Amino acid sequence: MTSVEVGDEAPDFTLPGTVDEEVTLNEFLGKKNVVLTFYFLDWTPFSRRHVCGFRDRLDEFRKMDAEVFGLSVDTVFSHKIWAKTLELNFQLLSDFNREVSRKYGVLHEEVLGFKGVSKKSVFIIDREGIVRYKWVTEDPSADPDYEEIERVLRGL
To answer: Where are the domains of the chain?
Structure first.
């Protein structure tokens, strides 16, 4: 499995999102910074806390000209219901085929009895498509440092 590092060009992708459209990363080049946050699975308590952490800070992230996307290996159908339930204000993207998790090096071979789920992680990609921040954990219950994410975005 490859791994994306700070300073690398972010691998492009196109994934289905929760608003009935596909999202292509390269469409944001030259326009916005992008925060990709991978999480374990829909409907789990630690993923709920993780995505709600982004939901609750989204206004601040957008003031810093950033677009946030949540990614997991769940289907877009599960994402749509879960996003509505949590009143999420950003799109969830379905990496059902695990291609993007593999490209970014954040696919668990096995954790908590589950095979092939995304590791909790955050990548900040600047307008030029360069990775400026990376946080990855093996612990599905851990959460990122949201203040650190804000600091990085302020510096872009």
So the answer is: 31-154
Distance between CA atoms of residues 140 and 137, nearest Å:
7
| 31-154 fold | Glutaredoxin (3.40.30)
pLDDT along the chain (156 residues), means of 10: 89 92 94 96 91 96 96 95 96 96 89 80 98 94 95 96
Residue 93 β-bridge partners: 17, 71
Burial of 95 by CB count in 10 Å (0-12 exposed, 13-18 middle, 19+ buried)? buried
Single pTM value for the model: 0.94
The CB density around residue 83, as the number of other CB atoms within 10 Å, is: 22
Angstrom distance (rounded) from CA 156 to CA 139: 28
